[in-house]
User: What shape does this take?
Amino acid sequence: MDLITKLVDTTLSITHMDAVDALRAFFIFATCLILSVSLPDTLRSRFVTYGARATSPPIKSESLARKASDTSLVTLALDYLASLRVPHSYFLHFYVAAVLSSLFWAAQLVSRGAVFQAIAARVGPEHLEKSMNINQLFLCWVLMFVQGVRRLHESRIFAKPSSSRMWFVHWLLGLAFYLMATTAIWIEGTGTLMIHKLSLDDVQIATIPTLRTFLCLPIFLFASGIQHDCHHYLFSLKKYTLPTHPMFRAIVCPHYTAECAIYLSLALLAAPQGEWVNKTLLSCFAFVIVNLGVTAAISKQWYKQKFGPEAVKGKWNMVPGVF
Assistant: This one.
């Protein structure tokens, strides 16, 4: 634990940034990274697409045997990087990380552990003054934990044998995202956590839900239900069959739409006192919508190539009326 504490403190010290700002910067950087490898065709085909959606077979290490006269050093370097892949089944690791990280932070916040103290010491006064209250902290932690458990369960029961592989950076970025997201869920409540020691009394629902909770909690629950239904339906399909479920009639990837709604609802539910949205979770939401938006666009193009233009005619990629 001392090693983790020193690592956290050293990392924040090197960045010369407030812990909240550093977390927001991570999500912004990750979003920019996704865009940088998704917009150029030569990078997208190598690093973003995988499995059935790949425009060409996965690049194998044998490609490095090409003669230098036939290709440039840049192409060789890109081919080598693209060959560094892990099984697509490693997606399961994302949700294992999410669940374990949520449990870790629950223990840290209750005990005011060393890692929490190391981060709290790096939170600036401006973020301590406007803080989430105890009810928000408890509710948002529970919802994030439930999201991680549900996705872990779905990844296990809806998994099909596949030889599909993904770029190793995608895997590392996914792990980092869930570790940071489970931190973002409480970090703007540091001011409250520093002056209030958590106890079992905080678990009791003794207050009337706010209007924000009354409006946003159903969005989270409804979106979670839709996403689960979509995942179950996709699992029931024969391999590479065009979805005909009502949710897929107007949107190519409604399960991605639901994921975006889940994180947007969390950003609204976790808004600190005096704010209308939690900006750290809003930056987390920005990463989610860009990351899934790129994949949704690729999916639509793949459906169009495999099943014809009529299969996706009039369908939105992910956000009805927008994209």
